[in-house]
Design goal:
- By secondary structure, the protein is mostly beta strands.
- The chain contains no helices and 18 strands.
């Protein structure tokens, strides 16, 4: 267990290649180490004046822009020697790419500026080869929401084996993400608290009408263990944690 955090990825480097960042990647990790990692491919648009901007999909399509999304629990061990890296294992309970996830682990090297360089290896989806990679992560800090004087992390989960269905929602402060996988079909949502607009949908991919992210916005009405039904699927509050 630890302090919940919000991390964005600055780049990925598949050795011996160059560092790039083709996605908007955000990871939310809760007090009890539940995590939800969503990676959405950027698309560049051109304004009438010729300037460009990157936009995320809002209406569920096209699904190919979901590079990867996975959720589960993470486990971190402390360095074996002074100045050494922490080692983290991410156990995927839900994975948009497969029903049988490969081992996911890496060594986490803290940088002088506070960023964290993750070094590990994984299986190349195109070639099947095991390749080394590096990812640079930046913690953006947890935000207060509205008039709340404390911070909050909330986790909800759903499962129905008879329909091959699994879901998880993780909210940390002013960010919330959700994933629902039914068979091979995955839906993801990303929400952010905007002071002037309250909660705003930042991205959505997939065909499910909606996830239960908005239930976490009403934290005062939630209790640990609550079960909230939606479309014949029960979502259970498995974590409700606040801190100052």
């Amino acid at each position: 267990m630890g302090t919940p955090n919000v991390s964005i990825r600055k780049h990925i480097r598949k050795l011996p290649g160059e560092a790039t960042e083709p996605t908007s990647t955000l990871v939310l990790t809760s007090h009890e180490s539940f995590f939800l990692d969503i990676r959405i491919l950027y698309k560049t648009w051109t304004r009438p004046n010729g300037s460009t901007f990157k936009a995320l999909p809002m209406d569920g399509e096209p699904i190919w822009r979901l590079e990867w999304a996975f959720a589960g629990k993470s486990y971190t061990t402390l360095p074996k020697m002074a100045g050494g890296p922490k080692h983290t294992v991410w156990c995927h309970a839900i994975d948009s790419q497969t029903s049988h996830p490969e081992k996911d682990e890496g060594d986490m090297y803290e940088q002088e500026d506070g960023d964290v360089l993750e070094c590990g290896q994984n299986v190349d989806a195109k070639t099947g080869e095991i390749k080394k990679y590096e990812e640079l992560w930046h913690d953006v800090g947890v935000e207060h929401v509205g008039q709340d004087k404390d911070y909050v992390s909330i986790v909800m989960m759903a499962a129905d084996e008879s329909r091959d269905t699994k879901g998880m929602i993780v909210r940390v402060g002013g960010w919330c993400q959700g994933i629902l996988k039914v068979g091979k079909d995955t839906t993801v949502e990303r929400w952010r608290w905007i002071k002037a607009e309250m909660w705003r949908l930042e991205a959505k991919l997939g065909h499910a009408d909606s996830l239960m992210c908005e239930s976490t916005f009403r934290r005062a009405s939630l209790k640990l263990g609550d079960v909230i039904p939606q479309d014949n699927l029960d979502w259970k509050v498995v974590e409700l944690y606040s801190w100052i």
